[in-house]
Queue: 3 jobs
Job 1
Amino acid sequence: MRQKTEIIPPQKEGALSVRGASVSKTLTAIKTLGFTHVLMIPDSESRLLHQAIGDDPDIHLITPCREGESVAIAAGLWTGGRKPLLVIQNTGLMEAGDALRGCGLGPKVPLRLMVGWRGYGGAQAGRMPIDSAYTYTEPLLHAWGIPYWTMMGDEDLPMLERMDRTAAETSLPAAVVTGYAFRS
Amino acid sequence: MTMTTTLQWPLVSQHELDFDFLAFGMGHAGDFGLGLALARPERKTIVLKGDGGLLMSLGSLVTMGRYAPGNLLVLLMENRVYEMVGAQALPPRADFTALARAAGIEGGGATGKGKVERITTIEAFKIELPRLLTEEGPHFVVLAISNKEPLPPVRHTDHAGRIRKLRKGLGVE
């Protein structure tokens, strides 16, 4: 049985930042870290990032139909020597559970995930009802033993590097969780 | 490959580039193969998967229709049952060849040269295989099969070790 992954608590100070990381700075960080492919299905919060990655000639964008596919395709890319990034809304993360188990956690594939935390902004603003996608995101990451860091604005972009390094060092999935929509 | 084929394949091959992996994400052998084929365009990637597994991720066909590279060969084992767990029947009207075509694989994939075929005899498969291994694809081939032999026992192997063995075989680790 694999050893339990250390859970690193999210950075609370991130919630105080300007809401949402900028698309251009996020894309620059992704390219600086050497990602070759980004797998993502656009959602309300990530649509601008999806467009920017699609327009960038230096990085391959793959848009599957469902997130379980994304995880398995990413595992294949990594096995073949590439470096994929999964941009995935929390709802998609929930759908992709078996793929994450079978293609990431079990075979120790260091999947890098950028998880959109749908419902976070509303919950912070006290809007009711609370989005259940918000409620279950952190417990799920904890249950899978996936370390994660929050990315609420541009000043949290270094968390991408920390997530990337952790995945490499542990050869297991690691994540950043984005609380707000990417902004232009 | 996943599920039933992972039990039978090791009886005929133990190559370092084989990746028969029972515990993989259900229905995602083709997706993994797609990623591998994209990563290693200089090699042929062959996926063996079952029709029951395909039903677990039908959207994968659409993704292949858009992105599958010319070096991807998917062999769909069409036995119309969930063989490994008791041979329960699949939905009888599902037409996997038509589904693959409608998903855009025919004339699609990254090359725009995707092909969808159905082969119904072992003799025909022997004739077509050399072409399938050399011709630019992607190829999605439905193989009508039936199994009359008892399945070997399930072996759960070292999953992390298996994927690293494959990476070593590919020269990336």
Job 2
Amino acid sequence: MSKINSLKGKTSSVAMLALLTAASLSSFSLPVSAVTDPVVFTFSTVGDTRQDPASPDPTTLLPPPPATGGALLPQDAQWLQNTRVWARVMRTVQSQKANLLFVNGDMIMGYGRAAVPSAWSTTPPATTNAVVNSDLVRFYTQYAYWRGMVANSLETGTYIVPVPGNHETQCSTKVTTNGTYNFGATPIASGCMKNPDGSTGKFAYVENENAWRANMGDLIGDLSANVRFQTVVGVPALSVKGLISTEAPTSATDPGITTDQSELSYSFDINTAAGRLHFAVVNTDATGFDSKAPTGWLSADLAAAQGRGVVKYFVFGHKPAFTYNYLQSPGTVPAAGLDVDKAARADFWNLIVQYKATYFCGHEHSFKIDSHANVDPSGNEILGAIPSYHVLVGTGGSPFDAKTTDVLENPHARYYAWATVRVHQSGNVTLDAYGFDTGFGPTQLIQSIGSLQ
Amino acid sequence: MNNVKNIWLVLSLAIGSFSATTQAGGMVLDTGIPDNSKSPLTLDASNFLAAEFSLGAGQTNIHTIQAYINAGNSGAEGDLFTIALYSADVSSGLPVGDQLWSGHATYLADGWNGLDNVYVSGLTAGNYWVAFEVGSSNDTAGLLMPVIATNGSLPALAYAFNDGSGYRPMSGENFGVRVTVPEPDTLWLFGIGLLPFVFRKGILKNILEAR
């Protein structure tokens, strides 16, 4: 018996040594398996991919350096897109297996008036240049270039969901590249309105809204037609709203709106293993309703979604609800978003908070994710409610608001950044912001939020 | 008797441990564990990462290649990634030379992930790149490579990344990676570690009797 015990002891010693030997032979210990919460749906979002010929970011200019006269890549100078950045963002978003990519406005430079110039009715354009340099043709060619860029994304599993921005819907008197025919002796009739005081003005026009529908309408209409949406995304869009004028914001829902807002503000649901998700797109620059969100329409839309049992709400618009001051103190930036009308902004934001929604936007060419509770009509935050996230990702390639010499509030304010939201099987929703610097360095995870409420 | 047994055991463990420690001598690249001093880098089908290391005379095989990888919100156990070995391009020094070997690895959990027993053979002294890549056709939606401020005990000679437009130098961001070559002395040392047991009075006989 003692011999058996002795043998057991020796055998266990040998076994221990064998284990040690085995552990040593495998050079490194293996990691313990992770417990994961599978992702059931993914979407990404970014805004502002357009280039600006008048004031491009100096880092986007070709050599020689700007100080000695660098220039834009000719194709970007012609079609006014930051092709290199936008292509890389899309490429990476696809690598992240996003089902949807919301683009939060300002995909084109636009800013003209996409109408047949009134002068052409009496004096037809005499030259090719007169035609191709008209705002109307510029709008359509810029749209076409952008649509060509995103076409591959739709072929490889990521559906593009467009959000109108002010460069699509508004005309700006400040933009001097507008077609000559749109600026004449009667600028209001054929060009852009100025502000009441006669200063530079930016106002939305019905012709630009029509151009939006003409160039983006197939993407939006397919939410319902489902010619390819389900094939690309894997699931259909449900409860689609806003494809016809009577279901879109109107003067009845949002007094001040004067035009058909179909396909400019719209919404839909996606059913996932984690529950039903609601996505709402709002036009923050409708004709007669500049720099405002259609809060009345959105209120009814979110309430209807809640009635359908939606568990998460995501709202996309171009203009931020809270203008981000990217400058480190001292320094401020003027209100540039929905906060130009603080009372209207309060109505909009408090609705976002009420539904524990997340708002994604662009317009400011900077990156910032923060959260805000309810606000009063004066702009003061009211403590009490759980804040909602405000995700500013106007960083798809347009010239950064912050200059290269600015001291920045956050180190990624001049990063080309986007957000990718993942809905996990448990129902938890995570948000990761990715980006790369102006030197086109490696892609980094620049901010991560473990739970969007 | 028990004391003698314990002495033998301690000796055996010590020698075994010595052999394990000695195996670290087979490392040719060891950046250490990332300290998250900066934002982590992404590893996905649009962002490959590579580190350069050197092999000396007589180091003709690669044994183990591992990178420090986290899942973050995007990764999941079982995510595949590719480890590739490149020769350094003569003119640029970047991993655009010949791909010498590649293999699929699986992310298991946050920490060191990679492949053991690679045994790439026929290498000669010189500079090589070990690259971590993701194939566009697999399901990996993105892993994270935390960064490290210091360069570790056996630092990489250089780092590079590929955003889909070819490998380019990367400066300012170091990620965690380690590479070993087989240690010829290892098995011999393990043999020594076993000797006390094998030759200990009675043990061989007992084992034989048990059969």
Job 3
Amino acid sequence: MSQSAATSDLSVPVRRRFSLDNRYIAPLFITTILVVGHFAYGILESYERTALAIVSALVAELILGRIFFGKWINLASAYISGISVGILLRSPAFWPYALCSVLSIMSKYVLRVKGRHLWNPSNFGICVLLFLAPETVAALTIQWGNFIWPLLVIWILGSVIIWRAKRIHISITYVLAFLAFAFLRSWITGDPWRSEISPITGPMYQLFVFFMITDPKTTVRSKKWQCIVVLLVAFVEMLLRLNHVVYAPLYALFLVGPTAMLIEIWKDFSHAKAQSRKEVL
Amino acid sequence: MRGGKVARIVLAIVFVCLLAMPLVMRRIDAQREKLNSSQGASAALSRYGFHFDEVAKTSDVNFIHKAPTLDHRLDHIMPQVASMGAAVSVVDFNRDGWADLYVTNSGEVSQNALFKNNTDGSFTDVAAASGVADLNQTGTGVSMGSVWGDYDNDGYEDLFLYKWGKPELFHNDAGQKFTRVSERMSLPAWVNANTAVWFDYDRDGRLDLFLGGYYAEDVDLWHLKNTKMMPESFEYAKNGGRKYLFHNLGDGSFEEVSQKLGIDTRRWALAATVADLRGTGQQDLFIANDYGISELYLNDGKQFREAGKQTGVGFSPKSGMSASVGDILNQGRYSIYVSNISEDGILIQGNNLWVPRDGTGGDAVEYDNLARAMDVEVGGWSFGAQFGDLNNDGTLDLYLVNGYVSLDRNQNYWYDFSKIAGGNSTIISDAAQWPAMDGRSLSGYQQKRVWINDGAGKFVNVAQAVGASDVYDGRAVALVDLWNRGVLDVVVANQKGPLLIYKNNVAPENKWISFELEGSASNRSAIGAEVRLFWDGRQQVQQVSGGSGFCAQNQRRLHFGVGKNPRIEKAEIRWPSGKIETIEKPSVGQVYKIKESA
């Protein structure tokens, strides 16, 4: 879910899109969701756990950034990773919050190909914890409160922010694909269609749609392919859902996102190689 | 990216080590669990100080719980809606000094049972002869549980039966039979209740009654007006049943005073218990709610004030299923245990153990959840839990049952459940929108937990080692010394399963002492009376309870284990009337029968 770019590594077009002000809108938005949600509904496991997740992410980013980029890098990205872990991860224990945040940030530095990291950091961290420590952790799948208005406010605000970041097409494509596949699943399984669209009305999807699938650093560059990739995420999610996988969207992104990145990197590499051959000739 | 090759290799190694950490922890836990479970009976007796034998059949207790069949519009999710009703309460209804058991059934026209203790190891069901068997007739709803209390102070425990349907009060006619007196109590026509507790909230010497609704009271589960009767949220629901507090007027009649006294909530109550949590002499009311936060009503004798958030127990919403209190740290204060739901990788709520924070007390009492720190956090889909000293070592242990719906072992409903649980209120609240269960299990076939208290702040699960190895869908647990041997036996009521009696065999070197109290100025059942036992420089407080756990009531007798070669200093009895009596140097191995002095 985090806007995963280490600031120093942002490409120029992305830097333009995320002016200094814009860069802090997402952290502010997610913080607002957290604070309002918590005081309205008590959504957090505890202040301490969320704080631990955030601090762990910040510290990991500071240390690793210093070692591998040689400077103190902007912490907006790490903050979003940490707060995402704090919201999405559910565990009565403390250690999963720290471990998940640290693994999320480390994944950006370890799992890299040709200078680009592959996984959305918090998506990576949460999926890994769900897979390796299911007896201790779960992800947020329940509703925050009963009322439609907070939900609408989050969707509207989130849409505005993502629109300003020029990534609204990703969110819209995903939501439309999810709804289409929900009806298809309902037709296949015979379950009520409302039960199939039910998950997207929950908070996990609010975070998933606005922060995770739109992450600039772990999505492909062209607008068309961004839409195709997110369509594939929704499709794989449908396949996982048909196999009763509870965290289908997280796993779908975990599988599809890096694959798309690898293909793009490979294409870039081939293109660069062909270019250099041409230049030599 | 900068950084030398060595730095990158070190980073990769650290990364892999961190990834491996959960696996290593899981392996260590599995080995510890294996070590604790691979014991024979004699090894368990020698290592843990006790061992269970399940003796229901040999005690002539052949009771199988039946679930109701509700409105056909719930057919597709019937197993999870009709998933409660197995309950057990302990009573000595005929005052012969031997504990008897009342067990509820929930199938339409099924029979409840009153197992009279024959004192020779066997029981006889006398419910039909006593007039408390045929209480699930069509149109009246079905039983969910019962609590016993001597509301008219005539010396015999009376029966309050709560149902998804019409609640009933039965007067105990000198231990011979029961007379229905529900009309005198002005009971509501229909309450979908899953909890009730007798207690004397105003300390006038007469027992009052709290009754907690689960589904809203205008829902008749056999004749639904519509299918929008489910909770509006998985953790924030406030569309459950109302609560009732019946004030005993002393002439056999009761007045409903809940809203007048400040108890006005529509959360989905599944369990309630009462204790003097602040040391004020007043009985505070704790409610564990499904689909939401717990509530704690502080009682000043005339008014209740909800203080869940203030005290810390009503903050994080979970799925409260059971509430029980115990002085687990031998510090003279009660902790509160609330069971919730945990399912690997899907929903890890964790059970709560609310321990009073050091330095807080009185009206400013605050609690910390120490369930994880003390290793009593994860059970499963947990229901009833009770504290009691199972090995007589001087510390309170904890018995917890788990398991929700056991159907097909190879298919589970969790995916569909989580799909709905995350949805908006308009979807989750409508039963018609829930996918069909189609014979799938939902947290079925789960093992139980028998956590023994090491006295140093940790509990260890020894369920398999000591013989508590059933995997029925456990609901109510009651602790009772069934055969007056100075040990706590365990009775478990299972949904759509048999009533189990775990006869406890305790190492004889661990001593015990018990107190059977009878009020005079206080209510005659002595509900709310406390005994504080001092021995070997330690103390432990216990109270006579009018209902605790999930749909259960333990024996009235207070049982203290005191370990090996104890030197008992004194027992201090505080009656609900406020009187305090002290017994100096009581002897071990005895049941002290104490009547409140005039």
